[in-house]
Design goal:
single chain, 305 residues, mainly alpha, three-stranded mixed β-sheet, globular
Length: 305
Amino acid sequence: MMNGTLVTEFLILGFSEMPHLQVPLFLSFLCLYMAAVLGNLLIMVTISASPALHTPMYFFLVNLAVVDILCTSTILPKLLDIMVGGRTISYGGCMAQLYFFTWSMGAELLLFSAMAYDRFVAICCPLHYSAWMGPRVCAFLAGLVWSISLTNTSVNTSLVLRLPFCSSNVIEHFFCEIPPLLKLSCAPTQLNEAMAFAADVFLAVGNFSVIILSYGFIVASILRIRSAEGKRRAFSTCSAHLIVVTMYYSTVIYTYIRPASSYSLNKDKVVSVIYTSVAPTLNPLIYTLRNRDVKVALRRLLFCC
C-alpha cells in the first residue's frame, strides 16, 4: 500500500504475463523502434535536401515524421529497459512520459486532418491551391497543430498530477498512460475522465469526421477523372491514407472514450501497441516511400552520398 503523498516511483508490469515471449517481444520492439526512427529521419533528410519536395504536402510529412520520432522515443526505449529488468519508473519520469506521449498523440491526430485538407485543396480546388496553401497558411496550420496538442497535454497532465496514488503503484501497462494511471488513484477521477473524453471527441472523433468529409469530396472529384489509370492511382493513395488513419483513430478512440473502470490489461496493451509502435513505423512507408517523387529524391540523395 502506498501513501498518496509519498509515491516516488511506479512499477510497470509491461508484458510480464508472457514470460515465454520476452525475447521475441524485445527483438520485435527493438526492430520497430529502429525502423521508426531511421525511416522517419530518412524522410526528413530526403525532403529537406530535395527542393522539388518543398511543397505543403511534404512540409506536413516532415512534421509527421518529427511527431512519430517523439512518440516512439518517449515509449519504446523505456519499454526495452523494462523488458530487461528495469521495471520501475520515477514519478517524475512517469509524468514526463505521459506529457510527451499525449503531446505527440494529439499532434498526430491534428496533422492527419491538415494533410487531408491539403489533399482536398490540391484535388478539388487546384486553381486556388497556391493561395490557400501558401507558406504562411502552412506555417499557421503547423503552429495550430503543435499549440493545440501542447494545450491538450498540459491540461490532462496537470489533472493527473493533482491525483493521489494510495492503493497501488503498479501500472498494468507498458507505459504511463491516462487510463491505467486513473485506475490507481484513490481520489475521484470524474474530472480527468471528462477532460480525456472531451479531448478524444475533439481530437479523434472531430478530426476523423473532417478527414472523412474531405475524402468524400476527393473521391467525388476522382470519379470525374476520365483516365482509368488516373483513377486507380488516386484511389490507391486515398485507400492507403484512410487505412492508416482508421487504424490510428479507432484505437485511440477505443482507449480514451471509455471510463477508466473498464480498462482491460491484455486487450488494451495490444491496442496501444498499434498507435505507439506500429503506426509510427508504417507512416514513412505508406505516406512517402511509396511515393514516386520521394523515391526519385531518395535515389538522388543516396547516389550523391
